[in-house]
Amino acid sequence: ALYGVVLAGGTGTRLWPLSRAGHPKFLHPLTGTDRSLLQATVDRLDLLAPSERIFVVTGVAHAAAVSRQLSTVPDENVLVEPSPRDSCAAIALAAAVIARRDPEAMMGSFASDHLIADKAQFTEVIQQAIAGARQGLLMTLGITPTRPETGYGYLECGSAIGDGPVMAVEEFKEKPSYDVAESYVKSGNYLWNAGMFVWRVDVFLSELSRQQPQLAAGISRIAQAWDSPAREEVLGEVWPTLPRISVDYAVMEGAATVGRVGTVPGDFGWNDVGDFHTLGEVLASDQAGNVVVGHNDDSKPGVLLHETEGLVVVPTTGRLVAAMGVRDLVIVDTPDAVLVCPRDRAQEVKQLVDQLKDSG
Ligand code: GDD
Ligand code: MG
Fold first, then answer.
1. Residue 345 has what DSSP assignment?
2. How far is the CA of 322 from the centre of ligand 2 (A)?
3. pTM score, whole prediction
4. What is the separation of C-alpha 18 from the centre of its chain, rounded to a whole number of angstroms?
5. What does the mean pLDDT of the chain come to?
6. Is 90 in the pocket of ligand 1 (CB under 6 A)?
7. What angle do helix axes 201-211 and 86-101 make, rounded to 10 degrees?
8. CA 47, CA 225: separation in Å to the nearest integer?
9. If DSSP codes are grouped into helix, strand and coil, which group holds residue 203?
10. Residue 91's pLDDT is what?
11. Potential cystine with 143: which of 16, 158, 192, 343 (Cβ 3.0-4.6 Å)?
12. What is the ipTM for the molecules in this complex?
């Protein structure tokens, strides 16, 4: 049976001032509906797994908000990390807890901060990935790259496996330099790693033991104590000692070099909502290309736009946001901070936040 694991970590600093440590992006309705990114991620899995088989891994600061937003997911399926140790520890914890319940389980791991336009296509691609995972592969979903993005992982496609769409991955390269990314995109033989994975839990855990023995041993101790009164004590003792590394570096790169990674190309309107510009590209706009995000409550004053083009406006306070005669700007209104910047510099908001941290 397929278990869905949703990773709800990270704050998304390029979405400041909307996304904050106390209220990270996955809790916000950035989906064009009133559902948050996290809720949309879980909603999207409903044809693949019932809610008893959905797990969420999140930090202690967000566990209550996560449970509140996901009323159908059992509370014991919200796995709470004492501190962030990056995605490998989070995924490994879920895999180990699920393996105790069902040693033959299949698991899909999903980021909570991606938008996916075509749910039917997504569901079909996951089914195809499950077929590859049954054969013992660590499956990725591959997206056709459109630019030399350095923040993603790249999959070098090899030969087809069987007669379905599954392909071998010759090389998995996480976050290459710009020049390398550019040569990958030009070659036409690479896909972006979508950051979603499908595998048998036993296959993943044995690959983890091979490549990250310390992390695997720590997770195994925690999993053994999970259903006992010692859980908190063991978690408190072991968790802070786990290596802080992402699953891409920790497992996927090395697994690809020994031929254990596969991919299915996915054309389901994927966007990782990294910044306000890319968010504006995927959500519906008016005729002049203006996008108003998360604004579904007609009773609120909202937004007044006069002769504007290509704006991304995020009203969150209920106070009126008005703009006139400007184009291609991001405008974000929150109770304690307002951001205005050109759309094509939305990536640099991260630097702005770093500056804030330094001066604070
Ligand atoms: N629970 C938990 N705890 N989740 C975490 C933690 C953690 O400590 N750290 C990261 N995550 C979750 C994030 O919330 C996100 O859903 C997912 O793991 C990936 O982490 P990111 O930090 O967003 O990774 P990335 O965007 O740099 O790179 C990954 O995603 C790209 C696609 O968006 C990689 O998988 C890349 O290869 C991929 O291209
Ligand atoms: Mg990300």
1. G
2. 31
3. 0.92
4. 17
5. 94
6. yes
7. 130
8. 32
9. helix
10. 98
11. 192
12. 0.99
